[in-house]
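Duplicate of earlier report; HTH domain-containing protein input re-posted below.
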Amino acid sequence: MTAETSQTLDRGLRVLKLLADTDHGLTVTELSHKLGVNRTVIYRLLATLEQHALVRRDLGGRARVGLGVLRLGRQVHPLVREAAMPALRSLAEDIGATAHLTLVDGAEALAVAVVEPSWTDYHVAYRAGFRHPLERGAAGKAILSARQQRADDPGYTLTHGELEAGACGAAAPLLGVTGIEGSVGVVMLAEVVPERVGPRVMDAAREVAEALR
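Output:
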């Protein structure tokens, strides 16, 4: 901590981070031990965060992230899109296919940024806001692959005709970006995805991840 920072705000943000990293919530005692502060301080922090709907407590007293975080999260998409656009434009122009950034939204994959190539005679129309189950399509499957493999570099995923007849997809997950789970990919009209597309998509995913860190 420095003279220019707020200890109370810092502790409140640390509480939110701890709660975001657990699925089952944390008790006041657990938060007290993790932060190294007394229970009275934790009670005050939780009460303040509850007033802003950033934290909720269940009947058992366990604190969890509140729905107010979702309202803040909606403002993240424009910032994420802006950061990802240079890498997506480069990918679309290089491959000659529609490039996209997809993020997890519950059990669905949500396209939040899309760039179409400028020089091709035809390409797949793919719009920001398009949703599909995580279990279908390269974008969602790449995210699931990263979850399952828990590897530093799970590679890329290829699919054919899962979301649109005659369309192929290639996607690689975003890695090492705290608080964001997603993938970068391309979709094209082709029988087979060219060999160079997978590695190029992985490079683009690394570029986007770096821009978001």
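The chain has a mean pLDDT of 90.

Merging into the original ticket.
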